[in-house]
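Help needed: design a sequence for this.
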């Protein structure tokens, strides 16, 4: 586990992470009533911060929680967290809950100030073994709710699914709903077949992944096409390549699915190109 760095942000102040405290009556703790973001920073610069802030704003709006900070204030908060923790390649976690009330009621009280919490950790460089050999995944039935487009802090189903994947010797669960690909338990998914790269379209069944945008831009920079289409379970089994993408793992190749090799069982040629283009994009946008 990546350890939290010494300085965090809580409700307007930068404080020592191990001294930060919130009330057990916070609705995030009692109900999972909040949203979060994970933003990768390279060379101290956040990648696609505006997209993350837009998704955060959309999540808060869906929950009926007033956005507690302006864009400039969010950017200042990020700069503070990164600067106070020494810069470099960091992951930044940000959580906004509906706040702390005087008791516990499903129906929220009006006018409670949201709780805002952020912390950072050192972003480990991608595991060379995973880069070389790819990772293992299993397909599992999606047991989550029907608003997976909201980046809710209520992640119980994802925790259960990830534990199940681990019990089956895999690094990630690829979730299917009604015989179709939803997404990874904490990643978006791309599938390659006969040179065509595909990913499922935006829907309530999956998170609007920011890394998906970055991968799509990397694909475009290579003048390759990307099809947004529903992907059946059978397409996963027949795939030449499967990739997972997320803010902390960038884009990685799945080389075994449900115990069977994907393609020839090694990271595929298109993954290699897109991974390289992703590194260039990072360099261009973050100067890292
Ligand atoms: N889908 C789910 C369910 C996730 O939890 C995540 C990231 O944690 C992703 C997709 C990838 O999203 P992003 O690229 O914004 O990190």
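Sure. Designed sequence:
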């Amino acid at each position: 586990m990546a350890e939290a760095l010494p300085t965090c942000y809580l409700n307007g102040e930068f404080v020592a992470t191990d001294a930060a405290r919130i009330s057990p009556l916070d609705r995030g703790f009692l109900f999972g009533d909040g949203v979060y973001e994970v933003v990768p920073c390279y060379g101290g610069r956040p990648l696609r911060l505006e997209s993350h802030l837009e998704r955060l704003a959309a999540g808060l709006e869906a929950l009926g929680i007033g956005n507690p900070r302006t864009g400039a204030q969010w950017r200042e908060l990020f700069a503070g967290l990164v600067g106070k923790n020494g810069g470099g390649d960091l992951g930044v976690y940000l959580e906004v809950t509906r706040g702390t009330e005087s008791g516990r009621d499903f129906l929220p009280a009006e006018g409670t100030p949201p709780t805002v919490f952020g912390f950072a950790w050192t972003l480990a460089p991608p595991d060379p073994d995973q880069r070389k050999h790819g990772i293992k995944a299993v397909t599992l039935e999606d047991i989550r709710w029907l608003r997976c487009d909201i980046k809710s802090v209520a992640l119980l189903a994802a925790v259960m699914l990830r534990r199940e994947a681990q019990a089956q010797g895999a690094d990630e669960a690829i979730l299917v709903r009604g015989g179709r690909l939803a997404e990874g338990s904490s990643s978006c998914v791309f599938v390659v077949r006969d040179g065509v790269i595909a990913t499922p379209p935006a829907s309530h069944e999956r998170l609007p992944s920011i890394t998906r945008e970055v991968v799509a831009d990397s694909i475009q920079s290579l003048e390759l096409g990307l099809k947004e289409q529903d992907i059946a379970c059978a397409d996963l089994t027949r795939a030449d390549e499967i990739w997972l993408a997320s803010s902390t793992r960038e884009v990685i190749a799945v080389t075994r699915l449900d115990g069977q090799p994907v393609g020839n069982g090694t990271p595929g040629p298109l993954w290699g190109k897109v991974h390289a283009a992703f590194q260039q994009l990072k360099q261009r946008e973050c100067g890292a």
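The longest strand covers residues 34-42.
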